[in-house]
Q: What sequence folds into this?
């Protein structure tokens, strides 16, 4: 016998399985019938057959969305008050023996007054500087020759006079720049990069309200003046000069003038505040120039001299490091009448420090008028002195 296969081959008596099988089948059928009956009792009553799912109905015609934009309203009311300004030079014609106009540059302007026959347009001095002729381009594209009513280099403002056009135009009102708040909306309208992009609108905010930018009037690399400006991040580009900087009420709160243009610099533009510009523009309209006080001195900043000059030539005490050195005193001038001489070092006017010539001029031109007296503190030969001058009128 194979030890790995063990079977039980013993034979058992055989029994019949028919009756038990029959009994089991009958019992199973009875149980199944009972279960099905109980399940049918729990089913809901029969109803109508469910409908097949349908897609959602198509949307009606496109929805109407009404958008109210204060900026758009301002632009619609004011854009026809911004014009193009064309600076033309006269040069000999190539084929003819007569002069021909040559485009030197373009800028922007603001219509700010209307006397019934002519319009007065504000722009920047640097826009029309050196022009042999000036033209104004109106919103409808028409051009008209303009007369320079007056220009002021110090404030970088000028006024043009032009005949009223046949087409539409707007006279823009001035706002109060002293009430500006940092962060409020600012809208610039002008002609960047030439007349092709006339009356371009850019929008930003007032970034700062009390900024001063240095101005080199003589072109010698030295600061001669500090121009008070409003700073904005509304895009101001070449050609915007002389254009409008508006508040959300549609009032001119600045005249676009300059921007910082350098690698990595974005959104730093400047405008001449309206409260500074208005009296200058009015003076240019009425008198053709701005009347300013006159002291009769030529100055250089003390910082332009060496420390050896401080000690030997000017003989200043060691503690004096800022001031304005007189390099010229005009004969018969208020300064000469007050006893001032060349190489005197002015350190204060009416008790206000004058660290630079720009600060000195700003004090005189914004705080004083012709005929006013001014107290001058200065050093001569190491001694602090004082004198009083009665200001004249700038020639």
A:
């Amino acid at each position: 016998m194979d030890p790995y296969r063990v079977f039980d081959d013993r034979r058992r008596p055989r029994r019949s399985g028919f009756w038990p099988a029959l009994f089991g089948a009958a019992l199973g059928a009875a149980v199944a019938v009972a279960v099905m009956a109980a399940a049918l009792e729990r089913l809901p009553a029969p109803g109508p057959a469910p409908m097949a799912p349908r897609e959602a109905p198509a949307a009606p015609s496109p929805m109407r969305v009404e958008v109210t934009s204060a900026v758009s309203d301002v632009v619609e009311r004011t854009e026809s008050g911004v014009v193009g300004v064309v600076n033309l030079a006269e040069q000999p014609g190539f084929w003819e023996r007569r002069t021909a106009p040559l485009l030197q540059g373009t800028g922007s302007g603001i219509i700010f007054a209307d006397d019934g026959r002519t319009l007065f347009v504000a722009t920047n001095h640097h826009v029309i500087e050196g022009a042999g002729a000036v033209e104004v381009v109106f919103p409808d594209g028409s051009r008209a020759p303009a007369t320079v009513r007056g220009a002021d280099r110090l404030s970088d403002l000028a006024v043009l006079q032009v005949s009223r056009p046949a087409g539409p135009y707007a006279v823009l009102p001035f706002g109060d720049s002293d009430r500006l708040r940092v962060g409020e909306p600012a809208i610039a309208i002008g002609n960047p990069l030439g007349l092709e992009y006339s009356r371009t609108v850019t929008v930003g905010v007032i970034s700062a309200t009390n900024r001063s930018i240095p101005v080199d009037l003589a072109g010698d690399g030295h600061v001669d003046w500090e121009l008070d400006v409003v700073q904005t991040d509304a895009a101001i580009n070449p050609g915007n000069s002389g254009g409008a900087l508006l508040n959300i009420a549609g009032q001119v709160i600045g005249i676009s003038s300059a921007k910082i243009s350098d690698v990595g610099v974005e959104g730093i533009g400047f405008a001449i505040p309206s409260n500074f510009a208005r009296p200058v523009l009015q003076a240019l309209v009425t008198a053709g120039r701005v009347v300013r006080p006159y002291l009769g001195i030529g100055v250089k900043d003390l910082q332009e001299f060496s420390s050896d000059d401080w000690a030997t030539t000017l003989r200043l005490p060691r503690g004096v490091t800022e001031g304005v050195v007189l390099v010229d005193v005009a004969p018969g001038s208020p300064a000469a009448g007050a006893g001032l001489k060349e190489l005197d070092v002015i350190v204060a006017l009416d008790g206000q420090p004058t660290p630079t010539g720009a600060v000195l001029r700003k004090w005189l031109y914004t705080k004083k008028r012709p005929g006013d007296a001014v107290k001058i503190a200065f050093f001569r030969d190491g001694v602090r002195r004082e004198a009083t001058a009665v200001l004249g009128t700038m020639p």
